[in-house]
Design goal:
By secondary structure, this protein is an alpha/beta fold. Among the domains are: 3-141 and 268-308, BirA Bifunctional Protein, domain 2; 316-370. Helices cover 38% and strands 24% of the residues. The protein is built from 13 helices and 15 strands. It has helices at 6-23, 38-42, 71-77, 120-137, 148-157, 165-173, 177-186, 191-202, 207-218, 225-236, 282-287, 303-312, 328-339, and strands spanning 28-29, 35-37, 55-57, 63-66, 85-97, 104-116, 142-147, 246-248, 260-267, 276-280, 293-300, 316-322, 345-348, 357-364, 367-370. The strands form 3 sheets. It has an 8-stranded mixed β-sheet, sandwiched between helices. β3 (55-57) and β4 form a beta hairpin. The longest helix has 18 residues, at 6-23. 34% of the residues are buried.
């Protein structure tokens, strides 16, 4: 394989892993047209990441749009069924204005949606699949989880005016504590209530550590329903590899006109912004005249290109050294374990010259140790 093929191979490897993950979990591949009637997006512009949409007139005179979002199309084109769950995944391109230069770009996404009569298990399953999706990209991924029901109850308890909530949530999402506190003071919110909000937002980290703190803070202040659900779901994942990447962080917020319940964002090293976003969007379903609930997430594959730029500064991610007489199966198993993380590996008996690598490792017996 030529070295310039490595970035493409990494991306294709991730796509294949994600498709396998979703299909073996009972999700069916959903294929859709590249375009929808523009009216679908015009009625839900606030739900879109960008409100700029590429439009054209169809041969019948209808105004059409190249799809800027997959979720809206899936909701529109699936049945409204409360008798069970519809589980679909997709590998599609969307067309959006770039955040950098505002030009339109074709952006590949892989993701899934679970629609119907949601219960805690179906929400837990989607959260676990989101965590496993991150692990397909990097073993060092982090999935930050919040609960909008809990956050909304806290805002009710401290009496944040309805007209100020959207602005306050923006400050919370940006972790802009200074402006958040200034807004609370301008609304004449009592100092002890402001302190409660600060402590709730400061409670972030592993669920088994954070949830008891929240329970102590909020007991008698709000209903425990949302916190109980968050605890039930995260505790069910605590012993799994996926559970090890979960963190509670209430700066993960989404538009409360569309989202409710659990929301989350996924991060991997070397990328400054989230590569995965998702959550429960029953309010969007209601706005679109649906009785059923829904939860899902998307993995932004274009972000992998930024990871590829980091990879291109090296000839190989890892050089794996082995000692004379080392077991051939042990060498192969160690190399395959590294490749399973989506990394490239060069196996050598001695450290090579003129090779740029990120990690230098050595197999000693059956144990791999990091040298650099």
């Amino acid at each position: 394989m030529m070295m310039q093929d490595l970035p493409l191979s990494f991306r294709e490897n991730v796509i294949n892993k994600l498709r396998s993950l979703y299909s073996t979990s009972g999700y069916s591949l959903y294929k859709m047209s590249k375009f929808e009637e523009y009216d679908l997006y015009a009625r839900n512009k606030d739900f879109l990441i960008s409100d700029r949409v590429i439009t054209f007139l169809d041969t019948n005179g209808k105004l059409m749009a190249l799809k800027p979002d997959v979720t809206l199309s899936i909701v529109k084109n699936t049945r409204d069924d409360m008798s069970g769950l519809q589980k679909v995944y997709y590998n599609e391109n969307v067309y959006r204005a770039s955040q950098d230069d505002r030009s339109f770009k074709e952006i590949p996404q892989v993701g899934l949606e679970c629609l119907g009569e949601l219960d805690d298990y179906s929400i837990c399953e989607v959260l676990e699949l989101a965590a496993k999706s991150l692990l397909c990209i990097s073993q060092e991924g982090i999935l930050d989880v919040s609960h909008l029901g809990l956050l909304s109850a806290v805002l009710d308890a401290i009496e944040v005016p309805a007209g100020k909530r959207e602005t306050l949530l923006n400050f919370i999402g940006e972790k802009n504590t200074h402006e958040m506190l200034a807004l609370c003071r301008s609304c004449e919110i009592a100092s002890e209530k402001i302190e409660l909000l600060k402590q709730v937002l400061a409670a972030n980290g592993k669920p088994d550590v954070v949830i008891p703190k929240l329970r102590s803070l909020l007991d008698g202040v709000i209903s425990m329903d949302a916190l109980n659900q968050l605890e039930n779901i995260t505790a069910a994942l605590s012993d799994s590899p996926a559970g090890q990447v979960l963190r509670i962080d209430f700066s993960v917020v989404d538009d409360m006109r569309y989202y409710n319940g659990i929301v989350f964002k996924g991060y991997v090293p070397s990328l400054p912004s989230s590569i995965l976003t998702g959550g429960q969007y029953d309010k969007l379903m209601k706005k679109m005249k649906r009785k059923s609930g829904a939860i899902g997430f998307a993995v932004y594959l274009d972000m992998l290109e930024r990871m590829d730029l980091v990879r291109r500064s090296f000839d190989v991610d890892t050089v794996l050294l082995y000692e004379e007489g080392a077991s051939l199966p042990a060498i192969r198993a160690a190399a395959e374990a590294i490749r399973a993380k989506g990394e490239s590996v060069m196996v050598q008996p001695k450290a090579p010259e003129n090779i740029r690598y990120r990690n230098l490792m050595k197999l000693r017996g059956e144990e791999v140790v990091i040298l650099e």
